[in-house]
Design goal:
alpha+beta; Chalcone isomerase; 2 domains; 5 helices; 35% helix; globular
Length: 183
């Protein structure tokens, strides 16, 4: 009887050994995978909200209004990542931000609003020397859902006007210079 059970016991031990080795390899492969990226860091470069024409903000959300009562002042807070800040610090008069530079504007529809309605994001991802080097996005807040481009003015179309500042808006550029105390 023991002789008949020996192959079964050997088979059980072999299966356990394979399972242990498989689990060990699985753990090793999981540890070799890159860790998730740490949350990206941004620095607020405006000490307080900055006035912004409501009509300009509205362009980010919908087609251009005609003689709208929404021409009142909205407000923004401007943020930049360390790549953009360090570039401006090292190159105070140049406008060729490196790939990876990123600007974020939190937009408040009314000066009395406690929380922003949306954020606009521009990130340098190319080096062709035109506005297509920048990726633009608009996200609704607080849910952080990216809004589609359809039905509103093109971000790149507006930023074409800022060619002299590397396609970075005057709001962002001036905020960054004030933050770094650059004249």
């Amino acid at each position: 009887m023991v002789a008949r059970r020996l192959p079964v016991v050997a088979l059980i031990f072999a299966a356990l050994a394979v399972a242990v080795i498989g689990m060990s390899l699985a753990r090793q492969r999981a540890s070799e995978q890159p860790a998730p990226a740490a949350e990206e860091r941004f620095l607020q470069i405006t000490p307080r909200r900055v006035p912004m024409k409501q009509a300009l903000m509205t362009l980010c959300m919908a087609a251009a209004p005609t003689n709208s009562p929404h021409a009142d002042v909205a407000e923004i807070l401007v943020y930049a990542n360390p790549v953009a800040i360090e570039y401006r610090r090292q190159h105070p008069t140049e406008f060729n931000y490196p790939i990876g530079s990123k600007f974020v504007k939190e937009k408040f529809s009314q000066p009395v609003d406690k929380r922003p309605d949306m954020a606009t994001i521009m990130e340098r991802h190319g080096d062709k020397g035109d506005v297509s080097d920048w990726r633009f996005a608009i996200v609704s807040l607080p849910d952080k859902i990216e809004l589609p481009q359809t039905g509103r003015v093109s971000c790149a179309g507006c930023h074409e006007a800022y060619k002299d500042t590397g396609y970075v808006s005057n709001d962002s550029e001036n905020a960054l210079k004030r933050y770094l105390k650059i004249e």
